[in-house]
Amino acid sequence: MVNQNNSTSxxxxxxxxxxxxxxxxxxxxxxxxxxxxxxxxxxQQWKPKHCGKMDLTVKANGEWWHEGQLIKxxxxxxxxxxxxxxxxxKFYLKTPVEQIEIDVEDEPLLVNQIDKIDxxxxxxxxxxxxxxxxxxxxxxxxxxxxxxxNELRPYVHVRFGINALIQRHTFFHLxxxxxxxxNVQGETILTLQSGDLHLQLGT
Length: 203
Hints:
Layout (H helix, E strand, L loop, with lengths): L1 H31 L16 E10 L5 E3 L2 E2 L3 H8 L2 E4 L2 E5 L3 E7 L4 E11 L2 E8 L4 E3 L6 E6 L2 E9 L2 E5 L1 H10 L1 E4 L5 E7 L2 E6 L1
Parallel strand pairs: 1-6, 7-12
Antiparallel strand pairs: 1-2, 2-3, 4-5, 5-6, 7-8, 8-9, 10-11, 11-12, 13-14, 14-15
């Protein structure tokens, strides 16, 4: 009888436990961040315990849903994306004391801006995500194409094995920075240059 009551209580309290975990992570980040500058913590140095899975899903369109509710607060999303971690093909929110698994349908970040910047006299492609991440395309941050749901999509590598989907309007802008060519198979190829790096993307 007691065991049955405890089981029911645990089931009933699970959503609030998820909510508490999420708020604890948000509070930790607010306390840890310095000013308004976006900086990524040294996640690779942290060895926290795994604390199960949270009812949090990042949809393929970039929306974050927690316990069936859309998270609309951009400041909160900016905080959570700072502690995104990928390990063995799974995504987590990671702090020094806990690592909680979340669901990600495709990739958890979105690129919504692209620019060309000058560094030491060379032109580089620079991406900006909806969460204020700045990514300069180089040998460690490559642009690539990958299929998702029968659609070929463009991405750029950001950090820790995590990529950002380049949104459609941003990709059209990227095309303006590159050159469209046709290979011997008659396929259209987008060629790009960032610094000394040359890229070819099948479109």
